[in-house]
Fold this sequence. Notes:
Layout: E1 13-17, H1 27-41, E2 45-50, E3 64-66, E4 69-71, E5 80-82, H2 87-96, E6 100-103, H3 108-119, E7 124-127, H4 145-157, E8 162-164, H5 167-175, E9 182-184, H6 201-206, E10 214-219, H7 228-241, E11 245-250, H8 256-262, E12 267-270, H9 274-282, E13 286-289, H10 298-305, E14 310-313, H11 316-319, E15 328-331, H12 335-347, H13 349-363, H14 368-384, H15 398-404
Parallel strand pairs: 1-2, 1-6, 2-3, 6-7, 7-8, 8-9, 10-11, 10-13, 11-12, 13-14, 14-15
Antiparallel strand pairs: 4-5
Helix pairs in contact: 1-14, 7-12, 10-13
Amino acid sequence: MNAQSPAPDKKLRVAIFSGNYNYVMDGPVRALNMLVAYLERQGHDVLVFAPVNRRTAFEHAGTLVTIPSVPLPGRRSEYRLGLGLHGSAKRALKEFSPNIIHIAAPDYTGYGALNYARKRGIPAVASFHTRFDTYPRYYNMGWLEKYLTRYMRYFYSRCEHVYTPSHSMTDELRADKIGRDVRLWTRGVDGDLFNPEKRDHEWRLANNFGDEDVVVAFVGRLVLEKGIDIFADAFKRAQNASPNLKALIVGDGPERATFETLLPDAVFAGYQQGEGLSRAYASADMFFNPSITETFGNVTLEAMASGLPCVGATAAGSRSLIEDGVTGFVAAPNAAGFAEKIAELGRDSDLRRQMGLAAREQSERFCWDAILAELVSNYHDAIIGYKPDATHSDAPSATARKHAA
Length: 405
């Protein structure tokens, strides 16, 4: 049976599949929760399918159907591996009768959801959140990367659309021949929450940051693929050139002990959210994100909204946000390149102030409602243009070429 194809003003019935929806807070999870809340406000029906854990990180948006799962090996039960679409979850999906399926991870459950959609004539779209294929290089398994890239090429070629959070990531996927119709789904930021006015002098003093100290912030999960070793190396090199630099680490994760060993004099503020997180950002003096695995960099956008100049890698997540020499610096992803830029900002308070103002101004372009409305429009495109019996090739369609322009 084929899915109904509603006109753009008709109600959507969206089934979303993710490997994580509420048990670890990260950028992709935040975006998915914003999406679900927006869809429900607009009167659409949504059902989310994802693994769950005993402890949740926050109160999630919408209705969540549990996917059976096991702890992901090597991550100390931080993330879970879904065991596929079976039993009660499959019955719930059948009863829900979606007219579009949105897959947020190309894992085993996502693969099952994609097969379910294709067998039943339901258009499937995918959002691309992370370069999973680069992860093996951080765990001494670099040989696996080319096989994961090959699998991702196969998986995403079977989706009607692939949504990426940045133009630079769109370019990367096209260069790697991942996805046929790649479109932009960027991210937004709450400019009232993340704001330079949240800077707190008393909080700085309580964390032993003096008036002359220049605080370099890291915000995110404390895992190897975030580049914590590069952060530590680059920071120590920069500190040798600019001794007034101090490190602030905001977040938690399985590699916290490793990070604390690498930077024993840093302030580790732990996991923060809401006002506590916005205060930590605004109370720093610059932001440094060495990661090359992120497709957008929500933390970078939050830092910009908080009025911080940012230093990042010449990779999709940072390059799409940081205007080099204007809102911060992008550098080759190595400790020496990062250290040079951090030290330059550490020595020049006028440059930090100028770049921080420019970063705040640029962040104001990222409005969640407008961004999500565009995604809903893309959903309708996928439904209306879907041809269940069409052969999927790697060649981009005319519509895909139009969105690439």
